[in-house]
Design a protein that fits this description.
This protein is mostly helical. 70% of the residues lie in helices and 0% in strands.
Length: 374
C-alpha cells in the first residue's frame, strides 16, 4: 500500500482552542440533571424491586463487554486506515480518546478534530495525514448511516421502528431529517472520494473572510496536505475499503447492543430486534444534538424511542444504568486513557503544546509512535 505523505505543518501550527474544566463539568451536569428529572418520572418501586431480584449480572457484564468491543473495533479501524502507522494499542486508546472528546463536545460538531490532534501528536503523525485518516473513518461512518436509514425504512414495513406515539407530524419530520442526512452523506462521499479539490476550495473560501484571514496560511497548508493524503487513500484497493467498512459495522453494532444488553439484564419482557432498531434510530436522531455528547437530549430521546418498549417502571433504572455505563464511564476512562496532554488542556486550560516533528507513516509503526503513558 502507498504510505500516507509526511508533512511538518502540525509541528509548526499547534491547535489554539482552549478547553477548560467547565467543558468537562457542563455535559456531566446536564446529563445528571436530566437523569434526576427522568428517573423519578419513570420509576416504579415495586417493578424495580422485582427486577432487582431477577437481575442478571452476567448480562450486564456482557453490556460492558460490548462497550469494549466497540472501542476495539474502532481502534482496529484507525490502525487499518493509518496503514499501521498507529499501533493497535495506540489505536484503541485513540478510539477511547475520540469517544471521550465526543462526550464533552456538541454532537453536531463531534470530537474528531481534537481527537485527531491528540492521536496524531501521540503517534507523530502530522496534521494532513491524520485529518485524512479521520475524514476517511467519518466517511465509513456515513456510509453505515446511509445503509442504516434505508434499512430502518425497509424494516418499518413490518415493525414500528419509528415511535408511533409522536404522531404523523413528527414522523414526517423524521423522514425529512433522514433525507437531509442522506444528502449530506452523499456530498461528503463525493468531495472525499471524487472531488477533494472542492473541499480544499471551500476551506480556502472560508478562511478568506476578513475575520479569519489571519488563520489562512496555516489552514491552507493543512488543507493542501490533507488533499494529498486523501488522494493516497483514494488509490487503495477495494479490500482496503471493505476492511474499513467491516470494522465500522462491528463498531456501531456493538454500540447499539450496549443498551439492549442493559435492558435484558433487567427484564426479558421486550422485543430485542425492535429494541435494537429503535436504538439505531435514537443514535441517528442524536447526531444533531447541540449539547456536549448529546447530554440531556439522548436521555429525552430514550423516553421517546426505548422507554415505551420496556415494562412499566423500568425505564428509569435502564436509562440510568445505560448512561452511567456508556457515557459517564467513557468520560472517567477518557481522562485516564487519553493521556497527560488531554488532562492538561482540560483541567488547566493550557494551549495544546506543539507536536513533535512528524515522521512519514509506514506499514510498520516507528518506535517513537508508542502511545504516551498517562
Amino acid at each position: 500500500m502507498e504510505p500516507l505523505p509526511p508533512s511538518p505543518t502540525l509541528a509548526e501550527a499547534p491547535a489554539r482552542r482552549r478547553l477548560r474544566l467547565r467543558d468537562l463539568l457542563v455535559p456531566v451536569a446536564i446529563s445528571l440533571g436530566t437523569l434526576a428529572v427522568i428517573v423519578p418520572m419513570t420509576w416504579d418501586g415495586e417493578a424495580v424491586s422485582a427486577a432487582a431480584h431477577a437481575m442478571r449480572p452476567a448480562t450486564l457484564l456482557l453490556a460492558l463487554g460490548a462497550l469494549v468491543v466497540q472501542w476495539v473495533a474502532g481502534g482496529m479501524r484507525i490502525h487499518h486506515v493509518s496503514h499501521g502507522a498507529i499501533s493497535r494499542v495506540a489505536s484503541v486508546r485513540g478510539q477511547i480518546t475520540w469517544d471521550f472528546m465526543s462526550a464533552v463536545t456538541p454532537s453536531a460538531m463531534g470530537g474528531a478534530p481534537f481527537a485527531a490532534y491528540v492521536i496524531g501528536k501521540a503517534n507523530r503523525v502530522s496534521a494532513g495525514p491524520m485529518t485524512a485518516v479521520m475524514l476517511f473513518i467519518i466517511l465509513t461512518d456515513q456510509l453505515w448511516f446511509a445503509m442504516l436509514i434505508a434499512g430502518l425504512y425497509v424494516a418499518a414495513g413490518w415493525l414500528p421502528v419509528f415511535p408511533t406515539e409522536v404522531g404523523a407530524t413528527v414522523t414526517g419530520l423524521i423522514g425529512v431529517y433522514s433525507g437531509a442526512l442522506l444528502l449530506w452523506f452523499g456530498f461528503m462521499a463525493y468531495t472525499t472520494l471524487l472531488r477533494p479539490d472542492l473541499l480544499e476550495r471551500a476551506v480556502g473560501a472560508v478562511v478568506g473572510l476578513p475575520l479569519l484571514r489571519r488563520f489562512a496560511p496555516r489552514v491552507r497548508a493543512v488543507a493542501a496536505e490533507t488533499r494529498e493524503a486523501v488522494d493516497a487513500l483514494r488509490g487503495q484497493p477495494l479490500r482496503f475499503y471493505a476492511v474499513a467498512v467491516f470494522w465500522s459495522v462491528i463498531h456501531w453494532t456493538a454500540r447499539y447492543t450496549v443498551p439492549l444488553l442493559v435492558a435484558l439484564s433487567f427484564t426479558r419482557d421486550l422485543r430485542p430486534v425492535l429494541y435494537l432498531l429503535r436504538t439505531a434510530g435514537l443514535w441517528l436522531a442524536g447526531l444533531i444534538m447541540p449539547t456536549p455528547g448529546g447530554s440531556g437530549g439522548i436521555e429525552a430521546l430514550f423516553l421517546l424511542y426505548l422507554a415505551p418498549l420496556l415494562p412499566d417502571g423500568l425505564g428509569g433504572p435502564v436509562l440510568l444504568t445505560w448512561r452511567l455505563l456508556s457515557y459517564h464511564l467513557v468520560i472517567a476512562l477518557g481522562l485516564v486513557v487519553a493521556g497527560a496532554s488531554v488532562r492538561a488542556i482540560l483541567l488547566r486550560g493550557d494551549d495544546p503544546p506543539p507536536a513533535p516533528p512528524s515522521a512519514p507513516p509506514t506499514a510498520t509503526p516507528p518506535t517513537a509512535a508508542a502511545p504516551t503513558t498517562p
